[in-house]
Design a protein that fits this description.
Length: 397
């Protein structure tokens, strides 16, 4: 049986390039980067080189990059830093969106308990935040705007440069969670008016446990972890040298093949979307033309997403029904609810996320099996029976 990994938005496999770059730092070049002797300084040199690489592909200065354990830590440090900085001058209002990753939403909930006011902008049915609504929401006491670059469940890419321009004109710090975007679409923090940005290595074929936070020069950041002088005193703890090296190698490899990978993956995604859209009472969530190349999110009325995933797994297909961070929850996706989908439809969601390692044969395997599993689940569903008998009204036409 063919096995298809179609959950690359959750995590990606480590590329050979990243893996080979990491290996020496486990066994031969294992010195502590803070040590003065040669073995330690070789590790320090590797970190410096990795910082240069990350800065190059984000178009920023190396001193504007802080290495973290991943996207969640970077989001936390950025948001908390900007909030506390604003509070010093009486600005305690933060703007975000209703479909952010929970690393952002939960941090905002924490800040609300500390007296900050949070405005969550609505997300329209096409999966986008309105630039005009954002502009209208900014107040004199707004300290921070944090809007994700690309959504992790439906893949829509927000108008980041426009949002950043408005924030720059209003004197408001702009942070973007670019965890899904980095390595898949071009990022230029200067051209896109970004003040703070978070990325995570394992989303672009680097190892888990490594990420980076970009902070524009002149914006002070607070420490989440105290204890040492690493990362210019902004993130204590002995650096994870192999992971940092692997992240830089993976980002370089991904960015050098951006256009080639984007076009290839998009062709596979569109092939799958075209066929699965033929399933009656199914719906594509988001906007395929203004989204990440590999992300396809669909709802199938009358079924449960959990059952769909388990049966697809039996057929060798690894996919998801939403964010990996909430896959253990029985609640429907907050992203799909933010789009205005009712609970019963949002429950029947499927996220397929592809990358350049997927093949046409794998896409064909998905196309063959998803309709069969949906039909099987509907044959056992009392909800589907009620819909067919007219006892309920279809939501998805």
């Amino acid at each position: 049986m063919i096995n298809v990994y179609a959950d690359n938005a959750a995590t990606t496999k480590v590329s050979n390039t990243a893996f080979n770059a990491m290996l020496p730092y486990f066994k031969e070049l294992y010195g502590n980067p803070s040590s003065l002797y040669t073995l330690g300084q070789k590790s320090q040199e590797a970190i410096f080189s990795a910082r240069e690489t990350v800065a190059e592909y984000l178009n920023c200065d190396i001193k504007e990059i802080t290495f973290t354990s991943g996207g969640s830590e970077a989001d936390n440090q950025a948001i908390i830093s900007a909030a506390y900085l604003g509070a010093k001058s009486g600005k305690k209002h933060i703007i975000s969106s209703a479909f952010e990753h929970h690393a952002v939403l939960h941090t905002l909930e924490k800040l609300k308990k500390e007296g900050f006011e949070v405005t969550l902008l609505p997300v329209h049915s096409d999966g986008f935040v309105s630039v005009e609504e954002l502009k209208d929401a900014i107040r004199e006491d707004t300290a921070l705007v944090t809007i994700m670059f690309a959504n992790n469940e439906i893949g829509t890419v927000q108008p980041i440069a426009e949002i950043g321009k408005i924030c720059r004109e209003k004197g408001v710090i702009f942070h973007t969670d670019a965890v899904q975007a980095a390595g898949h679409i071009k990022i230029d923090v200067k051209a896109q008016n970004i003040d703070m940005l978070s990325i995570s290595s394992h989303k672009f074929h680097g190892p888990k446990g490594a990420g980076a936070l970009y902070v524009r020069k002149g914006i002070p950041i607070l420490n989440l972890i105290e204890g040492g002088a690493q990362e210019r005193g902004k993130r204590a703890g002995t650096e994870n040298v192999p992971a940092i090296v692997g992240m830089a190698a993976a980002l370089k490899e991904s960015c050098e093949s951006l256009d080639k990978n984007f076009n290839y993956v998009k062709s596979l995604r569109n092939m799958i979307a075209g066929e699965l859209s033929k399933i009656p009472h199914s719906k594509i969530n988001g906007d395929l033309e203004r989204g990440l190349a590999g992300t396809l999110n669909m709802c199938f009325e009358g079924i449960e997403g959990e059952s769909l995933l388990l049966l697809l797994d039996d057929r060798g297909i690894s996919a998801s029904s939403g964010s990996a961070c909430t896959s253990g929850s029985l609640d429907p996706s907050h992203v799909l609810l933010a789009l205005g989908l009712p609970h019963e439809v949002a429950h029947g969601s499927l996220r397929i996320s592809l990358d350049e390692y997927n093949t046409k044969e794998e896409a064909e395997h998905i196309i063959k099996n998803v309709p069969e599993v949906v039909e099987y689940l509907r044959s056992m569903s009392p909800i589907w029976k009620d819909l067919q008998e007219g006892k309920r009204n279809y939501v998805v036409q």
